Structure of Major facilitator superfamily (MFS) profile domain-containing protein:
Amino acid sequence: MNFEKPYFGLRGGWLTFWITLACGADMTLYGYDQGVFSGVVISQDFLRLHDLQGSSNTTLLGTVTAIYDVGCSLGSLPAYWLGERLGRRKTVLVETTIRSIGALLQASSYSLGQMITGRIIAWIGNGMWFIER
């Protein structure tokens, strides 16, 4: 027989404490992630690499930044279906994989299309994450 205690042997107040601590750290990193991108989009290297320099490209730069919301919206739609079909644990693995692929595309981006695609993919996973929580 398997007599392992679920949740690392924690119950009650201690379980609540550690879950709250983990969620707080996760949301802090989420906010940090958003804050880092705001510093990236004003970097001259980023603007030059993605051909976004000059005042004529401010709308396009705003679109690259705001595409995050579109991806989150798109990601929240399949989350209900996937969560019901695959279960919570597997859905979290799917969304984590999607976010990782999007992050890799953004980090390795050498074109504007790749950056936009990476942001949409990363935030589809992020939208799924919010529904699963």
In short: Residues 70-133 form one domain. The radius of gyration is 18 Å. The first helix runs from residue 12 to 40.
